[in-house]
Specification:
Layout (H helix, E strand, L loop, with lengths): L16 H5 L5 E5 L5 E5 L9 H4 L15 E7 L2 H6 L5 H11 L3 E7 L5 E6 L5 H4 L12 H10 L4 E4 L2 H11 L6 E6 L7 H10 L6 E5 L11 E7 L8 E7 L6 H8 L21 E5 L18 E5 L2 H7 L5 E6 L1 H7 L13 H10 L2 H8 L5 H15 L2
Parallel strand pairs: 4-6, 6-7, 7-11
Antiparallel strand pairs: 1-2, 3-12, 3-13, 4-5, 8-9, 9-10, 11-12
Bound molecules: flavin-adenine dinucleotide and iron/sulfur cluster (3 copies).
Length: 392
């Protein structure tokens, strides 16, 4: 048996740095039982070189954290980008900045089979593929190797993802690159792709839609919507177009289970990154709690991002982003409104059984058992969004 020990399900974030680093290609990711993968070493092929443990941020934490220099409430001045974003579109501003300097941008997309994975884009038309939060673990594949290759070719790279994906990348690189910009987010936790697949299967979204939007908003808030392929003219099955339909709040129980943490990876409950000190150059989030104590004198109904400028590199970039409207706020306000900036998500009691039950239990019984019934607020939100869509 190999002496090499990688992370178990309590520590592994599925970053795949170990897989990317292994010279013998003898690590595979296997389901640890709840839909989340952990690495498995093929002992027969392993030469015990230790490359995998050296790059694992769960075993050898990167150790460098930044205390944010500035906290911004902000949004993009590009209206189309703001509409497509989860909050104010801070991500799209950074992406446009990097792409205009001939750089490459990495982030999470959802493909037509509703699978979430990291991809790289090199032109502004593709920003749309990365916009919007996908509340599903993004598959990393050989992303870290791709990033390293581009950095070595001296290309400018923006890498975006959850804080553990950035931490994993930095541990994998083990070297500072001036041409790397990193942006993470305040992170509540992630459900697995398998949990999302089960939800899509059970709500019959799987065969009918090409994409799911978790934050379909005219304004901000949580609203599941799907992209359906429909005939362009009634009865004309040869010509089709994509229409966006809001998922009936009754069927949108995935979002309520997400908010309660019922499907999160075990690792999320002891996450090393839910602190105000950050691993990335930038941190983005929804600006919950904006103006609660110190007035904010701008309309917010179209979504506002919270953006932390964590170091001097980020400061220089942001000073060169004329498309960003921003107002400086306090870190205390951001922390008060967004508990995952200072605390882990709490492990709810139902976490032990929900992941299994969501695949087998009758839906109404599931909703009752876990208290994830839609509320009047869910319907009112739809009404509010419709009203917001009429406002300028
Ligand atoms: C799993 C998850 C948990 C989150 N938890 C919180 C939270 O607790 N509090 C909070 O305020 N905000 C949270 N966010 C962030 C928030 O939803 C917005 O992404 C953020 O405010 C940025 O919005 P935006 O308008 O600038 O950009 P958008 O266009 O909405 O965001 C796109 C960016 O998000 C990245 N992204 C999208 N889905 C994923 C994914 N599955 N994995 C990795 N990266 C992804 C893309 O790569 C891109 O960089 C979370 C996001 C995710 C994906
Ligand atoms: S010790 Fe070396 S060969 Fe063995 S799994 Fe790790 S990286 Fe691969
Ligand atoms: S490198 Fe990443 S995938 Fe591999 S064991 Fe560590 S945390 Fe898990
Ligand atoms: S909560 Fe922590 S471990 Fe879980 S996805 Fe977010 S950053 Fe990764």
């Amino acid at each position: 048996m190999s002496k090499i020990q990688l992370c178990d399900k309590y520590r592994c974030t599925q970053c795949m740095a170990c897989v990317n680093a292994c010279p013998k290609h003898c690590i595979t990711m296997v389901d640890a039982g709840e839909g989340f993968d952990v690495p498995k070493i093929n002992d027969g092929a392993c030469i015990e070189c230790g490359a995998c443990t050296k790059v694992c941020h769960g075993i050898s934490p990167i150790g460098e954290y930044y205390t944010p220099l500035k906290t911004l409430a902000c949004w993009t001045k590009n209206d189309e980008d703001r509409k497509r974003s989860s909050s104010g579109g801070a991500f799209s501003v950074l992406a446009r900045r990097v792409l205009s300097d001939n750089g490459m941008v990495f982030g999470a997309t959802m493909d037509a089979n509703l699978q979430v994975k990291h991809i790289c884009i090199d032109n502004a038309e593709d920003i749309v593929k990365l916009q919007g939060s996908k509340y599903v673990q993004s598959f990393m594949g050989d992303t870290y190797k791709q990033v390293r290759d581009l950095l070595r070719q001296e290309r400018l790279v923006l890498f975006t993802g959850t804080p553990c994906q950035v931490g994993g990348l930095l541990a994998f690189l083990r070297k500072k690159y001036n041409n790397l910009i990193t942006c993470d987010m305040v992170c509540h936790g992630v459900p697995s792709q398998k949990a999302f697949d089960a939800f899509c299967e059970r709500t019959h979204l799987k065969d009918r839609c090409q994409g799911v939007s978790f934050r379909f908003t005219a304004g901000w808030g949580y609203q599941l919507a799907c992209e359906l392929v429909a005939p362009t003219q009634a009865g004309d099955s040869d010509s089709t177009h994509v229409v966006r339909k809001v998922v009936n709040p009754r069927n949108a129980w995935y979002m309520r289970a997400f908010n309660k943490g019922l499907m999160f990876n075990e690792t999320c409950f002891s996450c090393a990154y839910t602190i105000p000190q950050r691993v990335s150059d930038f941190t983005m989030a929804d600006y919950w709690g904006l103006g609660a104590k110190i007035p904010f004198n701008h309309p917010t109904h179209r979504g506002v991002s919270m953006l932390l400028i964590n170091n001097q590199k980020a400061m220089e970039i942001i000073n060169n982003c004329p498309d960003l409207f921003f107002e400086e706020r306090t870190l205390e306000e951001a922390i008060e409104g967004n508990h995952n900036l200072s605390h882990n998500s709490e492990r709810p009691i139902g976490r032990d059984t929900f992941i299994h039950d969501m695949q087998t239990m009758e839906i109404n019984a599931l909703i009752r058992k876990y208290g994830i019934k839609e509320s009047l607020r869910d319907y009112l939100r739809l009404l509010k969004q419709w009203i917001n869509s009429k406002r300028v």
